[in-house]
């Protein structure tokens, strides 16, 4: 029996009868589809909601599962695409809602033209459900707090940063209940280690999300640090020692009269540094009415272009003279 069926099928293929049958079947299917699609239908199309411009100062109770169901009447051709994708309805809190009794209200009738424009006049809208969407809210407090960095930098030999590390932005806005944000005075970046640095620094750092931050909003969740890195060198000048607050009737002789000051400066600014840019002082009041025989020198003036400076001697001997 199987052999007879196989034989008949083989003859049909050779005779082209199967090809004719397939063509008629396809045409019949297309005719049926066209007939169905040319008829008018009433269907309900579900719109996913997309929220825009939700106010930062309000904690709006938004249910992400909310949908707007639109009952429409249209030809099958115009409804076909809605079986393959879900249309979206944008609700703009600046233009599409009204504020009443601490509730944002979206009204279907007032926003019907927006929904209608989605169909481009090819569909008749019968109804929109629900006819009203309500979004209760709580008023939030806003506070501006500084950003602190937790960054350790290890420079390559001879390199250093020529200016203070910049944080952009250096402060952010935190938004939450007044009770919650009142205890937050600053935010900190995640701990970061930079090693073998010999070029300018520019890096994005995430803000450390502490437990308390889970219930607040932040205007920024990361900041950028920037630093100008240069080749540095060390220089030394002998700077004159100045005695201050010496009584008019007191004469002293002190030694040394100058103290070497070592300083670090970038190669670009090395030739701009002068001994007169530094000042070393000894305050006589520190040892007045004591039996000390030496003064403690202090470096009280350093030029801005110098990264760091230090005294190479820490005592100035003196004797009182007539």
Rg, Å, rounded? 41 Å
Continuous helix count = 5
Quaternary structure classification: single chain
- Mean pLDDT comes to 83
Largest sheet: 6 strands, mixed
Distance between the termini: 142 Å
Question: Could you say what the CATH architecture of the largest domain is?
Answer: Beta Complex
The shape, in one word, is elongated
CATH class of the largest domain reads Mainly Beta
- CATH T-level fold name of the largest domain: RNA Polymerase Alpha Subunit, Chain A, domain 2
Secondary-structure content class: alpha+beta
By DSSP, the count of extended strands is 26
The poorly predicted ranges are: 1-6, 27-34
In terms of DSSP E residues, the strand content is over 45%
Helical content (DSSP H or I, runs of 4+): 10-25%
Number of domains: 4
Would you mind describing this structure in some detail?
This protein is α+β, with helices and mostly antiparallel strands. It folds into 4 domains: 2-37; 40-139, Beta Complex (RNA Polymerase Alpha Subunit, Chain A, domain 2), CATH 2.170.120; 143-227, RNA Polymerase Alpha Subunit, Chain A, domain 2; 233-321, RNA Polymerase Alpha Subunit, Chain A, domain 2, CATH 2.170.120. The chain has helices at 2-15, 17-37, 76-79, 112-119, 178-181; strands spanning 40-52, 58-60, 67-75, 88-92, 98-100, 103-107, 124-129, 132-139, 141-148, 151-155, 159-161, 166-168, 171-176, 187-188, 192-197, 201-206, 217-218, 222-227, 229-244, 251-255, 258-266, 279-283, 294-295, 298-301, 306-311, 316-321. The strands form 7 sheets. Strands 11, 19, 21, 22, 24 and 25 form a 6-stranded mixed β-sheet that branches. A 4-stranded mixed β-sheet has the order 4-1-3-7. Strands 2-8-6-5 form a 4-stranded antiparallel β-sheet, with no helix packed on it. A hairpin with a 2-residue loop joins β5 and β6 (103-107). The longest helix is centred in the first third of the chain and has 21 residues, at 17-37. It is elongated. The relative contact order is 0.09. The model is unreliable at 1-6 and 27-34 (pLDDT under 50). InterPro entries: c-di-AMP_regulator (IPR053154). This is YbbR-like domain-containing protein. It comes from Gelidibacter gilvus.
